[in-house]
Amino acid sequence: MHGLVNRALQGFLTDTYGQEIWDEVRSQAGLPVDGFESMLHYEDQLTADTISAASAVLHKDRCTLLEDLGTYLLSHPNQEALRRLLRFGGDRFFDFIQSLDDLSGRARLAVPDLDMPDLTIRQDNRNRFVLEVRWGLPGAGSVFLGALRAMADDYGTLAFFEAGEGEEGVETVVIELLDQSFSAGRSFSLGEHPA
Amino acid sequence: MIPDRVIGLPGTALDQVMPMHLWFGASGLINRAGPTLGKIARDDLRRRPLFDVLDIKRPRIAATIPALLSLQGVRLSICLRARPDLPLRGMVVALPAGTGGLVNLSLGLSFAKAVADCGLTLKDFSPCDQTVDLLYLREANAAIAHESRLLTGRLQTARAAAEEQALTDTLTGLANRRAMDSALKSLTDAPMPRFGLMHLDLDFFKEVNDSLGHAAGDHVLTHVADVLRSEIRLGDVVARVGGDEFVLLFRDCDDPDLLQAIGARLISRLEEPTIFDGQPCRISASAGSVLASRYDRPDPDRMLNDADIALYASKNRGRAQHTLFEEDLLALPPNRARPN
User: Fold this and answer.
1) Contact A85 B117 (CB under 8 A)
2) Catalytic residue among B201, B244, B306, B308
3) Are residues B119 and B145 both part of a single domain?
4) Structure ipTM over 0.95, yes or no
5) Tell me: the pLDDT tens digits for B34-74?
6) What is the pLDDT of residues B224-235, one digit of tens each?
7) Which pTM value belongs to this model?
8) Does residue B210 carry a catalytic annotation?
9) CB–CB of A65/A58 below 8 Å?
10) Which residues of chain B have a Cβ shorter than 8 Å from any chain A Cβ?
11) The CATH classification of domain A77-179, taken from the options 1.10.238.10, 3.40.50.10090, 3.90.1520.10, 3.40.630.30
């Protein structure tokens, strides 16, 4: 798994729960003392072990933990760069949802060897979408559930989300748009970018 | 047959397809300007003379409509006179029957500055325009470059720390000064220190370096290291502490005669010439030693200093010999001028 994925996991645990919890997770998962490097590759098993260790240390079930990870990735100040990159997907949440088909391609444009999940978005009816997620490790659906919730807030959209499982290990997120101008949301301008 | 003259687009459609267009009439007055262009110019551009608004940088032409229309389809470098700091890219086509023309513009390489300075949003670009993708890529690259810089910084720190902690001389593979210091300290810290310390300095090494070159010098140093290594016991320490200076630590050694014998043997082995590039390299060595048992409480600096005094006594007596430190050496006139 790409170091960026692992580093995101490390950032989530450190920023949310503190250094001590991270140290405990690191030691239980048998990770290097310095943690993950974002520009290196690691065995998938190491990522899986980190998630399991975090789940044990925090007494949180896997799905909840990964959902929180998704929310963190798009709402924590330390991950502002990622939020901004996703906001390039569309001017409204509706457009953003439709752009999820392109998300993996976009990400690989920037990081060609990134392990991005395969994403397919299907529109069921006018305001209802189903996102299908296929990834090397189980749990990507939960990450997207948390991430999409955060993005809906970011756009000021009121939406309903539900995780599910499709066939052959496909994870799904059902998205129901209720009110696109529910709140002002957070500002986004194309031109401002963090240093 | 498909008609050649196609469309009469409503202005709003033109705005959407080409948000940075300028439509001008035969008189040269602007009829309509795309909304994004208006945003960049911060002005209503309609009914203004085209050349009051546009500055055609390349190709250089007379500021007339016919001259501009002669460049149909050519790539133009253009600035808005209101924004000379934003170079734009464009092209012009003539409208039928001499009714004027249409200029379409894009941000070109100034896209990032234009977007930041003019507060452009996703809506200001046609979905067909890849400027937004360029912005995305630029930002993603900046984020990745930032991560890479952090990694490089961490690696540099780690390398500096590793160098700081290194215990081996890279040329010879012997212990370095730091390793010798630490071994010597642990020997003197032991309850009943019994060990010998020898300071050995090559003779005629500079001559080899000067006459046969640095590669020969490196060859000699490697050879010296091999000889010293082969003459010590497991647990003894041999360190390269300077260019052609070595320190040897002999554990469990309390015998002045033994130390003398080792010194003489080392020197005679180092005097055997070694061949580099078909040339014999001849060196010798001077050495000075001291035993820990002669002190009540041996101190590393004191022992190194006393071995040094013995070494200089060897040098002063004509080199290529070994001297064991004795108190009366201190009475000799200090001669720190050092023969090579």
Assistant:
1) no
2) B244
3) no
4) no
5) 999 999 999 999 999 999 999 999 899 999 999 999 999 89
6) 999 999 999 888
7) 0.68
8) no
9) yes
10) 112, 115-123, 132-133, 135-137, 139-144, 146-148, 150-151, 154
11) 3.90.1520.10
